[in-house]
Write a structure and sequence with these properties.
With about 450 residues, the protein is an alpha/beta fold. It contains 19 helices and 14 strands. α4 links the parallel β4 and β5. The protein is extended, with a radius of gyration of 30 Å. The protein starts with 6 loop residues before the first strand and ends with a helix.
């Protein structure tokens, strides 16, 4: 229930008791409504939907407290009931709890005890309301509805992802950089039975090899130099929830062996620990490599098949051009609000340029482009023209996909050479500077023939 929905209904045939409790609760900022019989209590609860808690006397004429408790559970099952009686026994208290009462209190009672019970219940209700609200907000932010698309390609993606959400099987999401792999992973988590539980994500290519094992599996104090306290690791932190292994293809092969064992047994042994810890975790992996490359080059075949129980391929933006107008409109609306602008759309020329662009960075590139333009566009201007595009784009109109690929290859090779020069040939340091694993660095050096 919402925080404001916490009116207390006091039900007792003893009018003096009712008035005393009412006065006590009013002094402590509770809204109170009273009733002196079972039928009157049912009327009050039905008339006022803000009643969130009932103080209910067990012994009353015509309709006793247990009978009234059952009727409350039928008509307002979400309402909390505290039973009150002057004839309290252990058996009576146990029976009240069995029948659905939240708590039991005997007369006469210390006013502080009653107020503490009510305060704890109110705080618990408020916390539950906040959690419920957060779950709705997360669902709105990360649910499938938040992934903007009208294409047939994405419709099949949503159908497969929706089916995956209702399963605990491992999921492998494949797609180019910027296509929204993590957003889809969060949507699967939020729409499944593990919603509300932890979602722990890690980019396997961004963590140095020496740290990745301890980040995933944890360690015990004293396991190695610098291990000054226990660290549970992401798998343990994601227990009952989901762990998202992004760029799984960049994980070193020797670490893949350990990951395979975890996925086979769903147990993890932190570094420096002698016992294994059982896990209940859903695994979603992602990569920007093709399925064939993953199987042949980047992943152990047995690990790939363990992860790829459900495979979802996210198409690049160039294959779903019909979504470009929808995405542009969505990003303009979002960044209008963020930067207090009133841009309505793009000129015909600007739209044509964007529509025909290759978008190697996919949706993320389009999002960053629109935000960059709206952040600095004059407040009175309501149309994005080719002039604004040229000021924010580092590309020229592509002549073909081959030109784009060559340009990106040259850029990547330059970055490798520059990092090696700055690190004086130290490949470990160069990998850290570039934010990739050493395995990835060696693979790229070989690919481009860099010494």
């Amino acid at each position: 229930m919402s925080p404001e929905k916490f009116k207390v209904l006091v039900v007792d045939d003893d009018k003096e008791f009712v008035e005393a409790v009412k006065e006590l609760l009013l002094r402590n900022s509770y809204d109170v409504v009273t009733a002196y019989s079972g039928n009157e209590a049912l009327e009050r609860a039905s008339e006022d939907e803000r009643v969130g808690l009932v103080l209910l006397d067990l012994v009353m004429p015509l309709m006793d407290g247990f009978t009234l408790l059952e009727k409350f559970q039928e008509i307002i099952p979400e309402t909390t009931i505290i039973m009150v009686t002057g004839q309290g026994t252990v058996q009576t208290a146990v029976e009240a709890i069995k029948r659905g009462a939240k708590d039991f209190i005997t007369k006469p009672f210390d006013k502080d005890i009653l107020l503490n019970k009510l305060d704890m219940i109110r705080k618990a209700e408020e916390l539950e309301s906040k959690v419920s609200t957060l779950s709705v907000l997360l669902s709105e932010k990360y649910g499938f509805d938040n992934i903007i698309s009208g294409s047939k390609l994405m419709k099949s993606v949503f159908e497969r992802a929706s089916a995956a959400a209702h399963s605990n099987a491992p999921v492998f999401i494949v797609g180019e950089t910027g296509t929204g792999k993590e957003l889809l992973a969060k949507a699967i988590h939020i729409r499944g039975e593990r919603a509300g539980k932890p979602f722990m994500g890690i980019n396997c290519g961004a963590i140095p090899r020496d740290l990745l094992e301890s980040e995933l599996f944890g360690y015990r104090k004293g396991a190695f130099t610098g291990a000054v306290r226990d660290h549970e690791g992401l798998f343990a932190a994601a227990d009952k929830g989901t762990i998202f292994l992004d760029e799984i293809g960049e994980m070193p092969k020797e670490l893949q062996v350990r990951l395979l064992r975890v996925l086979e047994e769903y147990k993890v042994r932190p570094i420096g620990h002698t016992q294994e810890i059982s896990l209940d975790v859903r695994v979603i992996a992602a990569s920007n490599h093709s399925i064939e490359d993953l199987k042949k080059t980047y992943l152990r075949e047995d690990l790939f098949f363990r992860l790829a129980v459900i495979v979802i391929e996210l198409p690049p933006l160039r294959e779903r051009k019909g979504d470009i107008p929808l995405l542009i409109d969505h990003f303009i609306n979002r960044f209008n609000n963020k930067y207090s602008k009133k841009v309505k759309g793009l000129s015909e020329g600007a739209f044509s340029s964007l529509y025909n662009y290759h978008f190697p960075g996919n949706i993320r590139e389009l999002e960053n482009l629109i935000e960059g333009i709206l952040a600095v566009i004059p407040a009175g201007k309501n149309t994005i023209t080719e002039k604004e595009l040229k000021e924010h784009l580092l590309w020229q109109q592509p002549k073909g996909s081959e030109h784009q690929i060559l340009a990106l290859d040259r850029l990547e090779k330059f970055a490798l050479e520059q990092a090696l020069r700055e690190c004086k040939g130290n490949k470990s340091k160069a990998a850290d500077v570039l934010g990739i694993s050493r395995d990835t660095l060696y693979r790229k050096l070989k690919q481009y023939g860099v010494e």
